[in-house]
Amino acid sequence: MVDKTALRAQFTNEWEKHYKIDALTSKGFQRKQCTNCKRFFWTLNAERNTCADSECMGYEFIGRKTKNYSYVETWKKISEYFTKNNHTEIKRFPVVSRWRDDLYFTNASIIDFQPYVVSGQVEPPANPLIVPQMCLRFNDVGNVGVTGRHNTGFVMFGQHAFNTEKTGLFYWKNEALEHDYQYLTQIIGVKPEDLTFQEEVWAGGGTFGPSIEYAANGAELGNCVFMQFEELEDGSSRELKTKVIDMGAGLERLAWYTTGTPTSYDTAYGNVILNMKRNTGVQLDEDLFAKYAKLSGVLDMEEGNVKEKRQLIAKQLGMDEKELFLRIASLQALYAICDHLKTILYTCTDGQLPSNGGGGYNLRLILRRVFGFNSEFAFNLDYSKILSDHVKELRGFDDSLQEGLQTAIDVVQEEQKKFNLLQETSKRKVQVLVERLKKENKPLEKKEMVTLYESHGIPYELAVDLGKKTGVQVEEVFDFYEQIGMKNEKKKEKNKSEFWDFMDSETIQETKQLYYDQLYEDNFDATVQVVREVTSTEIGKHGFIVLNQTLFYPTGGGQDHDVGTIENVRVVNVIKNKKWIFHLVDDPAKFTVGQKVKGHIERTRRENLMHNHTATHLLNAMCRKVLGPHVWQAGAQKSPDKAHLDVTHYKKITPEEMRKIEELVEQHVQMKIPVNKFVLSRTEAEQKYGFRIYQGGFVPGKELRLVQIQGIDIQACGGTHINNTEEIGFFKIQKVESVQDGIERITYSTGQPALKWVQEREEKLARVTQILNTTEQDLEKAAQNLMDEYKASRKKIEQLEEYYLSGIANDLKARAKGSKIVEIIEDLEPEPLLKLGQMLVNQNPTLGIVLVSKSAKMVIAMSGSASMFNAKNAIQSILAHAKGNGGGSEKVGQAKLLSLDGIEGALMKI
After folding, report:
1. Could you give the 3-state DSSP secondary structure of residue 490?
2. CA-closest candidate to residue 737, choices 729, 746, 726
3. Confidence band (pLDDT; 50, 70, 90) for 488?
């Protein structure tokens, strides 16, 4: 892996090769070293000694307007410049990066084109291009609202060019920097003498190269990476075949530079934040805040020393640190809320909901931060109004947000309900903790606050608020959300099986997949290429053969594999790895390399799998129609007898919604809709059909096989599918359940298995009708009568039990010795035994009791409210002499005995 520190030193030594660029030197830019951060930079100002980074000079651009553009207007002006100069603007990709198997969210514009475009395997949608890519990053949540420049959601203006062997080096350092210099000076209004270009390096994913960062007057305006080299396995490197220009610039910061407002939020959120300030009445000394804002660039949780930096800022303003940050805390909270709700709007539009795991974890985290701020400062915010204002503010820039608005409103309302319930159950836990800390004269520290969030969902702001109200000293934590946040990278399971590693040989040809073109065939001829016996943790002890072609579909895409025979030898599993398909067979010894064989697949199983898989696509489309556009497939499994589809949804699916979905699926089955299967390049498929094609998640390959239910649904899918929805036949939902927060599972079956399921239900109904001696029409009434009779009988039994226990209690009290009752009872179940004990101490609060049930082998100990008897000690004393397990408190204890040996002797010691 490339060491960036060593790479930086190497490139600095070779600076003329990597950073001496005609686009800069021809204009008079000189190379200098910053006296503060020691980085090398290029400037037109011969007298300049520091670079223009905020850490080195603060936000000097604040208070200086250049063009005074709005957020949306800034993009329109940038787009106008680049499109006039032979660049194509493309639409943003979704913020949920389903075309990637390594990320939850899109966090940079280059992510749109990795790996296939960047590697040169797939043509880019345009070349060169620009894209206003919304990106999500949760690594510095604590900075949002504080520094003036950090966001969880921001638009990265991506400027990209792909220099392939076909195009040649047509757009490289000179072209990229020339355009960036021109748009920064002409469109953004940066004075050439204020602009600096800092030398930097970039490395990631096995590739690396030099990069140039742009800054002016303390504003970081962009970073152009020259993706030029690739690292080889032996540690050496070589030039990439496809050299990529990867320039990313935050649109929020570019717009901010044109206005010079105190924070980027004031420009980027425009009327949204103005309305929030107006509705909450948050007012600050504008002169003070403007002075603070210029200095706030040094506040970065990731850089550390936040406390020292805050103190330095306060000192420069001539104020006490606590007083300063208390005065601006409410405004910082408003900025953070505004940012977080915009992020939620984008994720709801693109199909990711808050949850306790995966990509939804950080969304729930920032929403709880929103709710915590709203409670702490008593803002009484109308979240739906803020979300609606965001949509209005971005009209003409990103109109897709209108589609996700209602979902976002509903999701926030549902999350607020969950948070309120959490408050009810968890607030007491916080109070107990802070009261204990107060008694012990200890502060509320970071570790307790992290535990409160991770175990009970209590946000930092709420814990701090409750701590302060209780009078407990609270540790200031500046990186709280960085500690509890989840990283954007998905965890990949390592492939445990290594039995096919030897297959990398070029002599073994790729297995031809017959199951697509010969969908309705049962038999095929093939030649054996590989025979091998193997024992694996994944497949057990079996053998496998590899053929030159096969009809057997391998497990994949949530679909079970085919079964059948090859030369009458049973095929028990089918696995695809790389370009080969492995047939696991019962007796590999019956095969030899080069042997001509005949294979046969089990037709009924194949048909059921095909029906269920196509039904999955149809069901998903109908869920979207009934539940809303936020619905995405979150998982699926197709087996022959039944299948299930997991969909994203923020609350339980109601019975009415389930019936409507089922009716719509069956209607479309009867409509005999053609199911088309075809292959397109990845770029063409994405551009033509959008990113809904990735319902099943990441699909590898530079070409995608698409399955289209004509006019209804289209997905990238490698499964076997029927040719017409009519072939599904009968469709029946069996049950709907919540399998995880924000995920609903719909289990269903089709065709004969569905009919069989319904028939089994009918048989059960007939048996119940017979048992109750009624008709089907009167079954509900008969069941209700039975339940009424049961409740009445149960009440009588409880009365009799009460009478029975009262008799035993009276007898025990008559035999009581002082304030203790210690007795063995012949036959009493655990629940009545506990009732008896409670009855005794309720009737006489001074009593201490120990009761043993011989039949249940159970001991209980109880202490009345006015008794000094210790129930916990009594149980421990008994367990010291009789074998068993138990425990309890001073007032109530119980134990389950392994045997009654020694119990009498144990009771004598009580």
Report:
1. coil
2. 746
3. confident
Cα–Cα nearest to 133, from 160, 95, 163, 171: 95
Per-residue HEC secondary structure of 492-548 comes to CCCCCCCCCHHHHCCCCCCCEECCCCCCCCCEEEEEEEEEEEEEECCCEEEEEEEEC
Q: Report the C-alpha gap between 491 and 484 in whole angstroms.
A: 17
Residue 751: phi and psi, rounded to 5, are 60, -140
Backbone angles phi, psi at 176, to 5 degrees: -65, -50
Within 10 A of 164 (CB to CB), how many other CB atoms are there? Answer: 19
Full DSSP string of 603-641: HHHHHHHHHHHHHHHHHHHHHHHHH-TT--EEEEEE-SS
Distances from the Cα of 433 to the Cα of 427, 436, 466, 481, 744, angstroms: 10, 5, 10, 21, 36
Q: And the tokens for 168?
A: 């040649």
Q: What is the pLDDT of residue 817?
A: 76
Q: Which of 788, 840, 786 is nearest to 813 (CA)?
A: 840
Q: Could you say which DSSP state residue 771 is in? A: H
- Rg over alpha carbons for the chain, rounded to the nearest Å, is 35
Longest dimension (CA), the chain: 110
> pLDDT band at residue 76, thresholds of 50, 70 and 90?
very high
Please check the confidence at residue 479 and state whether its pLDDT lies above 80: no
Question: How far, rounded to the nearest angstrom, does the alpha carbon of residue 839 sit from its chain's CA centroid?
Answer: 51
Per-residue model confidence as pLDDT tens digits over 431-442 = 778 788 888 888
Q: Decide: 590 and 569 in contact? Cβ < 8 Å.
A: yes
Alpha carbons within 13 A on the beta-carbon side of 11: 26
With 0-12 / 13-18 / 19 or more C-beta atoms within 10 angstroms meaning exposed / middle / buried, residue 461 is buried
For 828-844, the pLDDT digits (tens) are 999 999 999 999 999 99
Instruction: Please enumerate in sequence order all residues whose Cβ is within 8 A of that of 785, keeping only pairs 6 or more positions apart, or say none.
Output: none
Name the nearest CA neighbour of 813 among 788, 780, 843, 787: 843
DSSP 8-class letter at 128: S
Question: 230 vs 1, 30, 207, 224, CA distance in Å?
Answer: 11, 30, 4, 18
Mean pLDDT of the chain: 90
For 564, residues 6+ apart whose C-beta sits below 8 A from its C-beta are 552, 571, 599, 600, 601, 602
Q: Are 89 and 79 in contact (CB under 8 A)?
A: yes
Cross-strand partners of 677: 707
